[in-house]
């Protein structure tokens, strides 16, 4: 995996497609690019709340939130176009006042 800081608190992460599909417990549907958009939050409770809000709004839950082997807490949903969204809490991430993300 590779992390590139691209803006204030914004990271571009490049992962092995198989690793991401394994974590999300699903392959994207035919015709959907193998990308995942991620929304990182400050707690596991916030992840649960956003996942519930997404489901209420009509998103399809792809993988319910759970603690991952790397220590974070993630859930996945598909938007109306079929793209995967990761909703995540990473206890090792910090964003300073200048927007720099550190692990």
Q: Would you mind describing this structure in some detail?
A:
The protein is α+β, with helices and mostly antiparallel strands and 103 residues long. The chain has one domain: 2,3-Dihydroxybiphenyl 1,2-Dioxygenase, domain 1 (Roll), CATH 3.10.180. Helices cover 20% and strands 40% of the residues. The protein is built from two helices and eight strands, in the order E-E-H-E-H-E-E-E-E-E. The strands form three sheets. Strands 3-6-5-4 form a four-stranded mixed sheet, with helices on one face. Strand 1 and strand 2 form a beta hairpin. The chain starts with a strand and ends with a strand. The mean pLDDT is 82.
Biggest sheet descriptor: 4 strands, mixed
The separation of the N and C termini measures 14 Å
CATH superfamily: 2,3-Dihydroxybiphenyl 1,2-Dioxygenase, domain 1
Which CATH first-tier class would you pick?
Answer: Alpha Beta
Strand order of the largest sheet: 3-6-5-4
Write the CATH architecture name.
Roll
- What is the number of independent domains? 1
As a percent range, the share of strand residues is 35-45%
- At the fold tier of CATH, the topology name is 2,3-Dihydroxybiphenyl 1,2-Dioxygenase, domain 1
Number of helices: 2
User: What is the SS-derived class?
Assistant: alpha+beta
Radius of gyration: 14 Å
Helix content: 10-25%
């Amino acid at each position: 995996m590779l992390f590139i800081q691209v803006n204030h608190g914004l990271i571009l992460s490049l992962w092995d497609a198989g690793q991401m599909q394994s974590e999300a417990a699903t392959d994207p549907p035919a015709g959907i690019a193998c990308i995942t958009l991620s929304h990182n939050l400050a707690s596991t409770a916030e992840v649960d709340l956003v996942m519930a809000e997404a489901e209420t709004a009509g998103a399809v839950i792809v993988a319910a939130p759970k603690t991952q082997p790397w220590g974070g807490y993630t859930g996945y949903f598909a938007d109306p176009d079929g793209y995967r969204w990761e909703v995540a809490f990473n206890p090792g991430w910090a964003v300073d006042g200048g927007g720099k993300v550190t692990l």
